[in-house]
# Entry
Amino acid sequence: MDIRPILFTLRRHKLTCCLLILQIAFTCAIVCNTIFLISQRIGRINTPSGIAEAELVYVQMANIGSHADAKARVAEDLAALRSVPGVTSATLLSELPFDYGSNNMDVRTDPAQRMPTLSATQYFGENAVKTLGVQIVEGRDLQPEEYVYLSDVFKLLAQKQFDKLPAATLITRDMAERLWPGQDPLGKRFYVGQGLPFTVVGVMANLIRPGQGRLEVGAQYSTVWPVRQTMEEGGSFLIRCAPQDRDRVLRTAVDKLKALDPDRIVLDKGTMEQHRRDFFQNDRAMVGILAGVCIALLIVTALGIVGLASFWVAQRNHSIGVRRALGATRGNILQYFQTENFLLTTMGIGLGMVLAYGINLFLIMHYELPRLPAVYFPVGAILLWCLGQAAVLGPALRAAAVPPVVATRSV
Amino acid sequence: MFAYYLHMAIRNLRRNKVLTGLMVLAIAMGIGASMTTLTVLHVLSGDPLPGRSASLYYPQLDPLDMQSYTPGVEPPGQLTWIDGMYLLHAKRGTRQALMTGGMVPLQPAQSTIDPFHANARYTTADFFPMFGVPFQYGSGWGEGEDDAKARVVVISAELNDKLFGGKNSVGQTLRLQKADFRIIGVLGDWRPNPHFYDLYMGSYASYEQVYLPLSTSRDLHMEHDGSMDCWGDGGSDQAHMEQSTCTWLQFWVELDTPASVAAYKSFLDHYSDDQRAAGRFARPNNVRLRNVMQWLDYNQVVPSDARLQAWLALGFLVVCLVNTVGLMLAKFMRRAGELGVRRALGASRRTLFGQLLLESGVIGFAGGVLGLLLAMIGLWLVRQQPSSYAKLAHMDAVMLLATFVISVAATTLAGLLPAWRACRVAPALQLKAQ
# Structure
């Protein structure tokens, strides 16, 4: 179809056309970036945890007052939990995946290194790997004889007896790849604090780290240590069982723990799946808001196109009649308005791409977002082309329905 | 004359109800979205202690070792026990308080209420007068109680309602971590937002239920809750936090004049010098002294999601306005014939321009009213969100007024271009075309 007559007509409505193009450009730019933001959030919500989420329940408790025999009490508690029918494994873990707070340490590959290579979280707890359901891809799990109590670790630190600290640790594959790219991490040493060396004895496939704002700086930078805790030092009981037994096991576990020592308070309890949902609730709310604005934006733009197209159709009623009288088919008229819209939308999209890039630069500067991948540009373009065509269809059909006899009437 | 123009504007708008409705709706949606997000921002970036915040300062020192030191690095956000205690006892400000957060098991005397963990603040005597904390009953404690590690406690109004049915509970006993505390005060309504004095508990944290002397909390080894940053071989258990190389305390000081602020800053510098000479500090002097608003700003308390939402909503408003400009232009240009006749009959360009502008103003006003309604719904939706700050999202008088000013101003501005363009029609040409 020859587009020259269309361009010629549009030149007579320069201002209106510019406004429509501007609106489409803004919409395109905002929609491209918003879809990108949504996909980022969804990616975050779906971060793999590396643990058997569907098989875990947890109980977080606090003592009223302190106990002298804290170590024996933990052993008793854990034995009671393991005796609950259906429980395959239980531990007192220093922190849970999807907790808001977290314990972290700076890691160096060379004690003389000034800036740390990365910061990683520390999980303490006997049987942590087995209970969490973390997969070990290289090396071995920590052995029972390697475990020491956290209070003893503090004592050794205070007495500067660093050589007696437990030396074996597990790290994740992501962390190994960051510390020693392309090398075998087994048996390698990393350094914490004032150059205390620790040896990697096993590599885990994945293990998500807890902490608000920590997923952005290495979601899988986690370590597991041969350290046991007592209840006073914080931590949560983590229990593994079959998914269908979770509610029953959780109820029985809380009852048993309370029966063993009534002098404590349940701070929190639940399933790991619910803990994960709570952790990402802000992200899910944000996805909803972003999607809502995106849809509202598209609706407003569509209504704008309908409004302007309706005006033009009404304004050109007479000339449409003349064209029809001179032999133009209904299809020709329909095609005319559709092509006109296509041209305007295309110009809008062109400008919109530049704007989208600009907005992305702004977001990179202020919100530490990655660069907008090129794939979002065609997505935005196709979306707006479809939107434009759908919006103009109504007015265009009305234009096509104008009978040729209109040409013979004046005004 | 104005009343007549207004009447005409409304008549004109009613001639094309669908189009007018479309424009009003677009404006309303833009205004509604913008005002919702701006109200949230406004609430979140408010001054927690109006009138007082400018003279409250948060000193920072840098006791870290040289490991991973880079020039210009910010000092840690909290103080060690040694530094905090020194600043507290130096008494260089009008008032000063050292504090940290905690969790205390609380065993109610009533058997109907299960023991629970109470949110606690361990602090020193000046906390209450310095922050202007209102009391319903009783009062805070004095320096004597701090020194004596006294078992006294101040409770929040909410806890008083829960345990004592809102009655005056001063003099009653509260059992905390198996120790008896005497209640000496019940707070009034006090919830400064953000939770400026300890941002490490969440910026819009739920408020403390019990306040007790810091010295007492250490004496009884009460649980510390909040952020603790250690360096060197610093890791520490709860019992030995005084000696550890960890920062875990917040310190606030009241300084009433610019001269006292300058004097305090040089005091911090001298202290750093002394500590370095004594071998405790390794880094070059690195002190900061920020007041409340500067401290909130430095910590970027306003959630970045809230700011992002505001930008998005403003972008949406721009699209809505461009949309309205386009539609108004089309509408005014269609009336070119009528405008031409009126020009020919002697109406001045100014009069027509004013009338058209009034017409867009009416759309703006209608959009504002509807937008306000949408903003109310929007804020209600925000309050249903899970974020900690969501509950605070309420419209106030300032934002109410702002909604109208912004919507009328924005639409009138949007009406300028179409009105100007429509007034430029040559009357003769229009008459001829007819």
Observations:
- The mean pLDDT of chain B is 87.
- Chain B touches chain A through 58 residues (CB under 8 Å).
- The longest strand of chain B covers residues 95-107.
